[in-house]
Amino acid sequence: MNQQFQDAVTVARHYHGFDLFITFISNPSWDMLISKLLPGQTTSDHPDLVIQVFNIYKDAVLDDVVNKNIFGHIHAHVHSIEFQK
C-alpha cells in the first residue's frame, strides 16, 4: 500500500498535481444488486454481490473518464478502493 501511495505521489509531482478527485460509493439500493438477492435477504448478507455490482459501476465510470474522455484528454490516472463497514 505504501508503494502504491508513493507511485501516486510521483505521478502527481510529474503532472504538477491532480485536476480531479472523484469519490464513488456503493449504493445498497441499486436495482442490479437488489434483483440478485433472494426474498428476505439484504445486501449485508451478500458482500460478494455488493463488490461485484460495485466493480461493474466503477469500471463504467473509469471507462467514461479514461477512454471516452468526458472530462477531456487524460494524461494519467490513479484510483484507489477503500472498504468500509
What's the Cα radius of gyration? 16 Å
| Helix percentage range | 40-55%
Oligomer: single chain
Q: How much strand content do the residues show? A: under 5%
Question: Count of DSSP E strands?
Answer: 0
Shape: elongated
**SS-based class:** mainly alpha
As for the number of domains, it is: 1
Largest sheet: none
Question: How far from one another are the termini?
Answer: 20 Å
Write the layout of secondary structure elements.
Layout: H1 2-14, H2 31-34, H3 47-67
Key words describing this protein structure:
3 helices; elongated; 85 residues
Can you walk through the features of this model?
This protein has 85 residues and is mostly helical. The protein has one domain. It has helices at residues 2-14, 31-34, 47-67. The longest helix has 21 residues, at 47-67. The protein is elongated, with a radius of gyration of 16 Å. The two termini are 20 Å apart.
